Amino acid sequence: MSEHGKACVPGLFTDDNGARLLGTRCSTCNTPYFPKVTRCHNPRCSESRLVDASFGGRGTIWSYSVADFAPPPPHKHDKPFKPYVIAVVDLDEGLRIVGQMVDGLDQASVGAPVTLVIDTLYHEDGQAYSTWKFKRI
Ligand SMILES: [Zn+2]
């Protein structure tokens, strides 16, 4: 458990030595996957040799938007709902992934550098639950 709470979904990420998403990478064609997959989906790949891999570190914002209303269940959030920036980020390690930003809209712009972090997503029954997010650097 990180200082930001239990993982909202176990097995998707770790915060033990910095924020890392837990996925796989095809050792034949080098395609990264998150979450983990059991076979390579690259149609040009001749073999599907998958190995565990983790992804994190720096990336750049590919696109972003503002969630001005609460997503429907099963999404969970603290009440009252606070709008947040949601970004599509190209990680330097090869993944394009969606996540909330810990920063406000004034920090979001296409091409802006960010880093993967683990942060609290919501609280339930006195327990904090965490997920991955992006922070402007
Ligand atoms: Zn492959």
Share of helix, binned: under 10%
Major sheet characteristics: 5 strands, mixed, barrel
Q: Walk across the major sheet and give the strand order.
A: 6-7-8-10-9
Strand content: over 45%
What value does the Rg take, in angstroms? 16 Å
Distance between the termini: 25 Å
- How many distinct domains? 1
The outline comes out as: globular
Low-pLDDT stretches are: none
Give the overall pLDDT as a whole number.
94
Cofactors, ions and other ligands in the entry: zinc ion
Per DSSP E runs of 2 or more residues, the count of β-strands stands at: 10
Which assembly state applies to the chains in this document? single chain
How many H/I helices?
Answer: 0
Helix-strand makeup class: mainly beta
The string of secondary-structure elements, in order, is EEEEEEEEEE
Task: Tell me what you see in this structure.
With 137 residues, the protein is mainly beta. The protein has one domain. Helix content is 0%, strand content 48%. It is built from no helices and ten strands. A five-stranded mixed β-barrel has the order 6-7-8-10-9. Strands 2, 3, 4 and 5 form a four-stranded antiparallel beta sheet that branches. Strand 2 and strand 3 form a beta hairpin. The chain is globular, with a radius of gyration of 16 Å. The two termini are 25 Å apart. The site of zinc ion has 8 residues, from loops.
Chain-wise SSE layout:
Layout: E1 6-7, E2 13-14, E3 20-26, E4 32-33, E5 50-56, E6 58-67, E7 84-91, E8 96-101, E9 113-124, E10 127-136
Parallel strand pairs: 1-10, 8-10
Antiparallel strand pairs: 2-3, 3-4, 3-5, 6-7, 6-9, 7-8, 9-10
The chain binds zinc ion.
Zinc ion binds next to loops.
